[in-house]
Each structure stands twice: as structure tokens, then as C-alpha cells.
Amino acid sequence: MRRGVIPPVTPGFTTPEYYHRIGRILERGKFDFVFFADLLAAPIRFGDDITEPLRRGTQATATLDPSIVAASIGAVTQKLGVAITKSATYFHPYELARIFASLDHITRGRVAWNIVTSLTQSEARNFGHDDHLDHEFRYERADEFVRAALELWSSWDPDALVLDKKDGVFADPSRVRAVDHDGRFFKTRGPLNVPRSPQGRPVLIQAGSSNTGKDFAARWAEAIFEIDPTPEGRRAYYDDIKSRASDFGRDPDKVLIFPAFIPFIGETESIARKKAAFHNELADPISGLITLSVHTDHDFSVYDLDAPVEDVRVSGTQGLFDTARRVANRDNLTLRDIGKWYAQGVLLPQFVGTAEQVADQIEESFNAGEADGFMVSAAQTPGTFNDFVDSVVPELQRRGLFRTEYTGDTLREHLGLGDVTFGPAQRLQSAS
Ligand SMILES: Cc1cc2nc3c(=O)[nH]c(=O)nc-3n(C[C@H](O)[C@H](O)[C@H](O)COP(=O)(O)O)c2cc1C
Question: Is there an atom of ligand 1 within 6 Å of 61 CB?
């Protein structure tokens, strides 16, 4: 074995430089924020076995805690927002409220929380449960979780930290309150032991696709992530969420919808198509099915790979699976085909072409009422982000569709969400 000759492998995703580079590229491109998803378990669902995920390095086999990554990126950027997932099922509201208040201080007001209820049995097993909580129950619990966190974030008034050396006053006790939250699922006394942060609280993000999930998103989220490969699906989702938000008495313009896509950009259309084809051909069907098994919380290892996809009821993300099955039925796809498709980018649409053509697709989707903005997902990091920032961003700027400079400092300002107000209405103990 030529041990001395093989260059050492640098596991990029475990180094700070990897994240700093992504942050700097996206900030150069004037992005609103970078997002890090998270699961609290290795992807052990396909065949109830970790062997293949480990060998193949499938999604979420190994990831760093996103709150640590967020703090690290925040230290080398000045404007870029940092959005991370934290589970409302496996944390306590106090712990979570403290993490996000701290992150909001450390990033000077650039943090967002993607609220998830956690999808998988593997996560439950890591936290001492044999099975995970029922879908509807998880959302009921998450609802109270968010209320309790909001109460904790409002326990310090903005001017409570006095730091008056002359009179020896650290904080004004009349401006810091206990919250005494005593609900069905959570009890927390408060106040938070972190002063009011620059944004007041993190920007709230969600990505529900079930009926209950969409209601939750429409009630709480200020930004919503969406995956749908078809323009019709994206339009329907957009209209649905906006009308649900109105039903909850919210301004639908303050509930931003961000569908995701993967760009493949080339100097010519044919180069871009070759890039996309190369990427898609490399996709490994088993890796796709391992990830599909995690997202749906259903073991797809028990089916014939070369048969049509069966009509099964899954306990995880029903929406993505329904989309996969709809397309599979239409195009006569086998489970292997679905696995390959899923590995190409978890059903994300691909925008392929020159910078102008990719900008055309973004503009079209925006004008068709599918989106308020977009999540740019990378086929490779940081290559995809570099290509996009160097070619598509300037094209969008030329068209007046994208900022040329940040005009604010906080993520709320980038997103045009306005200030957080914690009036009595936000006390929420009894609000519906
Ligand atoms: C773009 C996007 C990102 C997501 N990120 C996460 C994540 O990081 N962790 C997680 O457990 N779930 C994540 N989800 C899953 C959602 O929170 C949600 O559970 C899923 O879309 C299914 O919807 P439902 O909960 O309404 O059934 C994500 C979903 C989407 C579309």
C-alpha cells in the first residue's frame, strides 16, 4: 500500500474553513441567509442498518450541530443571515430560547430558527423513546413549544440591561419578568437569563407540507421552505399558505414563501445540460432510497427495486412521497428510478442553462406567483454557490430583481419583516 503517496483526505464539512468559505461566498452574493438543516440521528431506516449509509455517506450520516456552525459563520460575516433547524420535539423551550437568543447576540441579529417536529423513529430512539410521537400530537406540542419560547424571549424588555456603574445597577428588575408558563406539555418559570437580543427573537421558519403542518407554518412562520418539482404544485402551495395566513389574521406579505431549486449553470446551454446530466447520472439509487426512507420514516429496503412503487402510507413526510408516487405513476417509474431521482436532489426542480436562462426561470417562477424568494440548493459546495453568485446574481441585479447592496444589518431587515413587537398579544398564554 502506497500510504505515503496518497494525499491526506480533508474532511471539509468538519472544518471551520468549509463553512466560512460558504458564508463568504453567499455574503458576496448578497444572499439573505444560509440555511443548515438538521436531523438528530444517523439515517438508520433503510433495512434498519447503518452499514450502507456509512459506506455511501448519504445525507445526514454525519453532521455538525448547526448552532455551533451558525456561531462560527457569524464570526466571519457581517450581514449574511444564518438559519438553522432545531427540533421542537427533542429540546425544551428554555434551552432552545437560550440558544437562539445567544446566537442572535453573537451574530448581531442575523439568526433564524427552522422549526421542525422531527420525522423519524431513529431520532426518538436517540432520545429514549421506542417510537416517535404521532404526527398531529407533535404539532400540538410544537404549538405550545413556540408559545413558551416567545414568552421567554419577551421576558426582557429592550432597555432592561442598564449597566449603570455609578449607581451600581446591572439590570432594571422592573423590566425583566418571570413568564410562569404552565401548559399541557411544558412548564418554565423564566425569565430567560439572556437579555433581549438585537432581533428580539430569531426569524421563524417552517416547512410544513401536511394540512396540520401548513396550518402551523401559516400561524407562526415568517418564512416557509417548500420543495415541489412542478410549477402548478408551487403555485397551489403559495396560494394555500397565503390564504391560511390571512385566516389566522396575519398579513400574508409577512409570510414569505421560498421554494428550493438546484441550478446548473454553463457558458452555453449545452455545457449546462452536460453538467446536469453528469450530476444526475452519478446519483446512486440506493443512496436516494436511504434518504427517502428517512424522510418518509418508512423502510423501502423491503420492496422489489425493479417494480412500480407501491401505494403505501408512510408515517414521515407524506407530501414528498405523494409527489414521488404521482410522477412515478405518470412516467411508469420503478422504485430504483425513484431512488435515483431522489438522490439527484430530493425532488428539487433543476434550473439548467446559461446565467440568463437560469435568471429567466427564476423570474418566470416569481412572476407566476410561485414564490417570494428562492432557496438555492447546491449540487456541490461551494462550486454551485460560486457559479450562481458570479453569474446569475449579477444578471438578476441587472434586471432589478435582486439587491446590489445590503440596506440593513439584521436578517429581519433583509427580509423586510419589520420589527418584532412583544405586546400583550404576544404573551400568548391564552391566545388561540
Ligand atoms: C426545505 C426543507 C427543509 C427541511 N428541513 C428539515 C430539517 O432540517 N429537519 C427536519 O427534521 N425536517 C426538515 N424538514 C421537514 C419539515 O419540517 C416537515 O416535517 C416536512 O416538510 C413534512 O411536513 P409535515 O410535517 O407537515 O408532514 C424540511 C422540509 C423542507 C421542505
Answer: no
